[in-house]
Amino acid sequence: xxxxxxxxxxxxxxxxxxxxxxxxxxxxxxxxxxxxxxxxxxxxxxxxxxxxxxxxxxxxxxxxxxxxxxxxxxxxxxxxxxxxxxxxxxxxxxxxxxxxxxxxxxxxxxxxxxxxxxxxxxxxxxxxxxxxxxxxxxxxxxxxxxxxxxxxxxxxxxxxxxxxxxxxxxxxxxxxxxxxxxxxxxxxxxxxxxxxxxxxxxxxxxxxxxxxxxxxxxxxxxxxxxxxxxxxxxxxxxxxxxxxxxxxxxxxxxxxxxxxxxxxxxxxxxxx
Length: 272
Description:
MipA/OmpV family protein; signal; 12-stranded antiparallel β-barrel; cell outer membrane; 272 residues; MipA; mainly beta; Porin; globular
């Protein structure tokens, strides 16, 4: 089997029971986008992320990665979900079914694999949802790519839809090491913004937060730097550090106790 040489930044929030909310840099090459052999990657690590989008507290989250890619394009992954990927020239595309994590108004241990905090007490529960994802990537030479990712809930449709525009650039590469810069901008529709950043009248009475109705639009920017060290043909260590910032109405939400939050993670993987 051929080793997978990238960890998708799209879907980092999905299937949170197995993957932390850390955007790992995709080291995209033509071979990796369209593998000629099937591959399996196993990994484990730890990430540091906010308790929820807008929280002023961080928590450590365990990461378990299992990613199977068949040579015909079918894949099953704790990060990417279950789906199919293909390419035509410099264009790469994938379609998958994945998951979006539950958010509650209680504090959680790291192993609970939920987002939320007692800071949201009275806001109630945002149920987990199954989502459909479509990702479209364009390679710009051997060192860069840009992508668009669309996510729409298949269950709990009131949770809303998102669109992400992003890109990555490998700033340095050697035989065993590479450093990549990864950035993205996320947009949410009216339902998404209301679900995760809005406060209804009933929630206001229960939580004490002011009533708030955000509009659809940009809600988050992410920038990270990732270092990948290849121990040999099978083992690699990926280290990521960066930050996310809430924008526009999301940043002005009464739930946003902090607009800018750090992100970091370390993952050790074995591929064959």
